[in-house]
Amino acid sequence: MTNEAWLVFGLGNPGPKYEATRHNIGQMVIAELASRIGTGLTRTKLRSNVGTGRLPTGSVPGLPGPRVVLGTSTGFMNESGGPVRQLADFYGIDTERIIAVHDDVDIPFDAIKAKRGGGEGGHNGLRSMTSVLGTKDYLRVRAGVGRPPGRQDTADYVLRPFSKDERTTLPIFVSDLADAVETLINDGLDAVQQKFHSR
């Protein structure tokens, strides 16, 4: 049985070693959304930290926003698919209402893109989700982190903290990404693309 809730899952790795890295920006966005909703994230048996509630604003003024399930994995990036599947099954959420929030090296730092489906671009979290869900047809909010400088390995680059310059604008970037998620849920993919792709 399905319902009208949305599952927003922030990709990343567990523990303090990784929490400030580029690869964990999806989890930073989940923390921002949880703060807006007024909920915390609780560790569950579903291999996830989970918070639920309603968005503070909906598409109709004065009415509560849509119900959302916010999740981050308690495991590592390359095992993201299992927790996503478990949460979707537990809360009865269709794949078309799953949103993955993740870092993307193929777009510049501070850029925001959204799409449904497509490739994984070498991203192990997306690859795991596609494998376990059995489809690529889920939504993605892509947080640009830029390409690694010089010959630095991409895997090493995304597991490093943001640079000093990047950290000055990171809070605004994370807030804008949370806005993009809200717009996607309230107004649809076309709306979020029009509003944020030219940001």
UniProtKB/TrEMBL annotation:
It is found in: Cytoplasm. The keyword tRNA-binding applies. Pfam families: Pept_tRNA_hydro. The record marks N13 as: Discriminates between blocked and unblocked aminoacyl-tRNA. Gene3D superfamilies: Peptidyl-tRNA hydrolase. CDD domains: PTH. TRNA binds at Y18, F76, N78, N124. It is an enzyme of class 3 (hydrolase). The active site is at H23. Its EC number is 3.1.1.29. It comes from the Bacteria. Its main location: cytoplasm. Keywords: Cytoplasm, Hydrolase, RNA-binding, tRNA-binding. It catalyses: an N-acyl-L-alpha-aminoacyl-tRNA + H2O = an N-acyl-L-amino acid + a tRNA + H(+). One of its GO terms (molecular function) is peptidyl-tRNA hydrolase activity. Belongs to the PTH family. Monomer. This is Peptidyl-tRNA hydrolase. The lineage of its organism: Bacteria, Bacillati, Actinomycetota, Actinomycetes, Micrococcales. The gene is pth.
